[in-house]
Structures are given as C-alpha cells and as structure tokens.
C-alpha cells in the first residue's frame, strides 16, 4: 500500500469548518469527523507527537482524505452525523439502536380516546404524552389509567358501532360514552383529570377530587362521593408506589461508564415529573476511543437519527462533560424548535437523577464485562475441546422447521466472540422439495447460503447442523462441492444430535468426515455455548415457520387462481355466502355469475377440489 503523503495534502487544506472522510486502500470510508478548523484538526493526526493508539492505527490505513466545507461548526456536526449514519465507518463509534419510542395519545374527539401510538402525527389532532421507553411502559400506564379515570380506550370503529355498554363499562373502567351512559360533563371532567395526571399534577388532582367528594357528601350524593373516594385512594396508592418523582417536566439523564474498551450509557427518561423508565446502551466502540468522542457520537446518533417518536427534551443531564457541549445545545435547540440545555453541573433533585443514572451505568458495565468474560471462557474451552489452533471468530448454526411438511423454513443464526450477532441472522423459505424431507431442506439452505465466494469476515469457523448423521452427511456433500468458495478458510462441520430422550445435556457432537463422536459433560461451559446457539437457531426457525403458516391461514384459497382477482373473489364470496359455499357450488352454478365463463368456472372448481 502506497504511503499517504500527508505533507502535500495538508498544504491544500482550508481552515474553514467542515467534515472530513478518510479512505483505505479498498476505497472504503474508515473514519468520518468534523472540525471547526479543518487544517488544524487534520494536522493533529499526522503530528510527530501523536501517540494515541487508535489514531496511529487509523493513520496507518489512510490512503486519501476528502473534505466538505460548511458555513458553521453546527452544520458540520449535522453533516458528520448523516455521513456516519450512511457509511458506518470502522473507526467511528456506532450506536446500534433501531428502536422507535411510543407515546400515550389523547384524541381530540367529542369523547376522547386514550391509546398507544408509535409516533407523533401532526394530522391527527390530540395531545401526546411521552415518549415512553418501551411499549410495555405505555401499556402499563394505560392499564393504570383505566383504573383511575374511566375514559374509553377502544378503537373508533368499535366505539361508533356500539348499541349497548361493553364489559369495560360493567367493570367500571369506562363511562360508556358510546351509549351515553353518563352525563357529557362527567366524561369531559374525567378527561381533564386524566390530562392533569399525565402532566405530573397528581397532587392537584387529588385535592380537586377531595373537594368534589366532600361537596357530594354534603349534597347527599353518596354514590358520587364513593366514586371520588375510590379514585382518591387509588391515586394515593400510585403516589406511594412511584419510586422517584419531582418537579421537573421534561428531561433525559445520561449516565456514562467506560472501562476495558467497553462503554455503557444508561438513560433515564423523565416526563411530567416522573421517571417513565430507563434503558442501557452499549455502543460499538473502536479500540482506544476517547471518552469525549463516545459521548458526542452517542448524543448525535441518539437524538438526530430521524427515528419515529424520539424527541429532544428541554434538558439533558450528563454525568460527564465533553468539549462540544455548547455546539450540541445550539444544534438540538434548532432541531427541536425550543431551547434545549445540556447540563453537567447541578444540585438537588437533578443531581440525584444523575447519580442514579451513573450508578446504573456502572452496574450495567460490570455485568456486561462479566458476561463477556464468561462468553470468552466458553469459546476458549470449546477451542480446547475441538483442538483448534486458531481462535473461533464466527459460528453459524442451521435448523429446519415445518409442520407435516407444510411451509418449511430454514434458519441461520450467527455467533461471534461477543455472543449472538442478530444483524447477520437469515431465514430461507424452502421450496421445490418433497414435503418433510429435512435432508433436502438442509442441502438447499446451505447451497443458497454459500452459493458465492466467501470473504474472510463472513466465512464461519464452525458450522453447526442441528441434526444427526443424516443431516450432517447432506451438509458435507454440499459444503465439499462448494470448497472453492472458501479461499484460505474452510469451515469445520459439526452435527448436534439429540440424545435418546432429547434432553438438554445429552446432546452428541459428530465431527464431519471422520464422524467421530465428541463427548462433553453436561455441565461443560463449552457445551452450554453450543446449546445456546442450537436453541437460538431452533427458536428463529420456528418463529419463521409460524409466520409463514399464519400467512397461509390468513390467505383465501381463492387467491392465486388465475383470472380471479379481488373483485371476482368478493363477488363469489358474497353470492355463495362464504368460502364453503363457493366450494360447494357446481361448475354450472359458478358459470351463471356475471363475468365467470365456463372455462373459468372449471378452473375455479378444479383449484378448490384438487
């Protein structure tokens, strides 16, 4: 590889703000960065005093550098984020998170509906509360709201077609606005109370309910007073159970921990004065990355990734500071449309939030490192048991799932030295074989998986076949025929045969070619690793098969018949009263319908009966 002429390059670089992209000898982008002064920043990479291991490793692979000039440092930050999201360079910190965040939504109807939504839709009028950290947190809140404030949660179509109260009304979890079971003003009052509660004003809600209870009691409206009493008791119970609350309305709290090349970031989501939940993140961090780079990369990708439902809060509390905090404040404020603050110095309640997030980040990192150590120990023992001379970098396991030969699906799951690599999982719909022929299915999936020449990164060191000698022999035949597709690295084939009673711990490992049996004790960590990848393969295959089977169950038998489109299907079903009626109809009866010829009637009859 030709050495990059940094001196000649730096003579031409501008001092303006912008983004730079570094390329290797394969013309792949390996790093993307931004700078307030491009010349000054890029010069630091090639300084004789530069001793940072990550930077030295990066510089050794640079073949060329491209720069894009921007008007401001903030514009450079946005462009850097977009480039990283698009190219995912090797030496950049990457956040692996595709999660969308849900909201509670109170519709702007005559009788508002409270429901879960996955994103904010400006066309849909109403009030959004959140975002929540997970769908489970929203469903838990919905369940709680149903007990506290009896407003409807049913779909509009269900609500509009009711002629009598549903079960929720009988359980006193809805006021039955669909059939006007309660006065309009009472329903609207409950909506107002629910809105105030979701905004974190639980104490004012309780005080108002106490006043109403006393007033109803004085007016001898004892039933109404009892209802208010029950609501007050429920709300007080919720207050007691609320594990942390406060006066802040909207903020995220970031706790950061970084050890042994692994970063742990714990996010607390605080809305309307209540912690709605939390989540831990472990971004992909290149070796020897700086703490400031990890923090800035995480914030950029977390809040600017454009995913539905993720909002920038008005305050973000940080356990650790970084140099570009002021730039991020300006960027987030412009992105959200309101002033956003990033704080690292705080006291009182906010300080307690930060300490809580920091503690959780430390604990999560400790647990993660412990698990990682356990995984590496399992790999080491497996390498020793199989007498391998090189460390295992990638393992794949294949399984077949079907029911009586119907909708056969094969799974491929991948494990590397960090555990399951779900981004590389694949499913294969198996066709063109005798139903129930697992050997043929295994042959087809391997032929399709390895039909092209493999790169060293995607070539597995071990291929596990979930099955006995028959499936293993089929795999041997296919893999040996594709030997040319594995330049310099040929995978080891191992069959995993279940014991006589098919119990965990009684599995038998069969090596390819020699068909030698490898004995492993049931308490061996190496066997536990094999069981884990086998079970994951089994789960993934069954899930795919069920999806395919359910899809067939949802599909009408009339679909797929040549000449029978959506309108003709609807006409046949309406005329004969359903699919059974169509099946019972003769060719003459089918042909009497408008648009159904004799030949088409024969085609339909043949398809439904054979």
UniProtKB/TrEMBL annotation:
SMART domains: GIYc, HhH1. Residues 253-479 form the UvrC family homology region profile domain. Pfam families: GIY-YIG (PF01541), HHH_5 (PF14520), UVR (PF02151), UvrC_RNaseH (PF22920), UvrC_RNaseH_dom (PF08459). InterPro entries: GIY-YIG_endonuc, GIY-YIG_endonuc_sf, GIY-YIG_UvrC_Cho, Hlx-hairpin-Hlx_DNA-bd_motif, RuvA_2-like, UVR_dom, UVR_dom_sf, UvrABC_protein_C. Keywords: Cytoplasm, DNA damage, DNA excision, DNA repair, Excision nuclease, SOS response. It comes from the Bacteria. Residues 203-238 form the UVR domain. Residues 15-93 form the GIY-YIG domain. Belongs to the UvrC family. NCBIfam families: PRK00558.1-5, uvrC. Interacts with UvrB in an incision complex. This is UvrABC system protein C. The lineage of its organism: Bacteria, Pseudomonadati, Pseudomonadota, Gammaproteobacteria, Alteromonadales.
């Amino acid at each position: 590889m030709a050495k990059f002429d940094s001196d000649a390059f730096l003579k031409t670089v501008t001092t303006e703000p912008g983004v730079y992209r570094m390329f290797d000898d394969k013309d792949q982008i390996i790093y993307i960065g931004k700078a307030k002064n491009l010349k000054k920043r890029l010069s630091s990479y090639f300084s004789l005093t530069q001793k940072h291991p990550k930077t030295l490793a990066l510089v050794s692979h640079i073949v060329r550098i491209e720069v894009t000039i921007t008007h401001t440092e903030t514009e450079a930050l946005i462009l850097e984020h977009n480039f990283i999201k698009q190219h995912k360079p090797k030496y950049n910190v990457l956040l692996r998170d595709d999660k969308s965040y849900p909201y509670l939504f109170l519709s702007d109807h005559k009788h508002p509906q409270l429901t879960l939504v996955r994103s904010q839709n400006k066309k849909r009028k109403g009030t959004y509360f959140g975002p929540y950290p997970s769908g489970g947190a929203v469903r838990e809140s919905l369940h709680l709201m149903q007990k506290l404030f009896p407003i409807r949660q049913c779909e509009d179509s269900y609500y509009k077609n009711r002629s009598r109260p549903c079960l929720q009304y009988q359980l006193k979890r809805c006021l039955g606005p669909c059939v006007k079971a309660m006065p309009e003003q009472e329903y609207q009052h409950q909506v107002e109370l629910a809105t105030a509660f979701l905004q974190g004003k639980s104490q004012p809600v309780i005080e108002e309910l106490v006043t109403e209870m006393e007033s109803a009691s004085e007016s001898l409206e004892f039933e109404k007073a009892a209802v208010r009493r029950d609501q007050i008791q429920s709300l007080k119970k919720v207050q007691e159970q609320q594990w942390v609350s406060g006066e802040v309305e909207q903020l995220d709290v970031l706790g950061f921990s970084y050890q042994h090349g692994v970063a742990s970031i714990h996010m607390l989501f605080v809305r309307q004065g209540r912690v709605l939940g939390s989540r831990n993140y472990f971004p992909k961090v290149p070796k020897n990355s700086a703490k400031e780079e990890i923090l800035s990369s995480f914030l950029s990708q977390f809040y600017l990734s454009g995913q539905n439902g993720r909002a920038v809060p008005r305050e973000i509390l940080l356990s650790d500071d970084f140099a570009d905090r002021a730039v991020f404040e300006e960027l987030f404020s412009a992105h959200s449309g309101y002033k956003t603050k990033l704080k690292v110095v705080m006291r009182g309640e906010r300080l307690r939030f930060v300490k809580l997030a920091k503690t959780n980040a430390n604990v999560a990192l400790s647990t993660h490192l412990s698990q990682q150590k356990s995984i590496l120990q399992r790999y080491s023992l497996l390498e020793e048991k199989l007498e391998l001379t090189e460390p295992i970098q990638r393992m794949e396991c294949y399984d077949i799932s079907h029911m009586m030969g119907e909708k056969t699906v094969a799974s491929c799951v991948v494990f590397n030295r960090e555990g399951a690599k779900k981004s590389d999982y694949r499913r294969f719909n198996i066709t063109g074989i005798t139903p129930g022929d697992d050997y043929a299915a295994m042959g087809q999936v391997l032929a399709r998986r390895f039909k092209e020449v493999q790169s060293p990164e995607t070539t597995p060191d071990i291929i596990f076949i979930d099955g006995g000698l028959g499936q293993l022999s089929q795999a041997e035949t296919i893999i040996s025929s594709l030997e040319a597709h594995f330049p310099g690295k040929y995978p080891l084939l191992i069959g995993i045969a279940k014991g006589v009673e098919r119990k965990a711990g009684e599995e038998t490992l069969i090596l390819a070619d020699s068909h030698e049996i490898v004995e492993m004790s049931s308490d061996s960590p190496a066997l536990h690793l094999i069981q884990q990848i086998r079970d994951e393969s089994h789960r993934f295959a069954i899930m795919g098969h069920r999806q395919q089977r359910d899809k067939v169950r949802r599909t009408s038998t009339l679909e797929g018949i040549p000449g029978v489109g959506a309108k003709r299907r609807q006409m046949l079903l309406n005329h004969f009263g359903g699919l059974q009626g169509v099946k019972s109809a003769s060719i003459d009866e089918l042909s009497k319908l408008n648009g159904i010829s004799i030949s088409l009637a024969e085609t339909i009859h043949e398809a439904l009966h054979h």
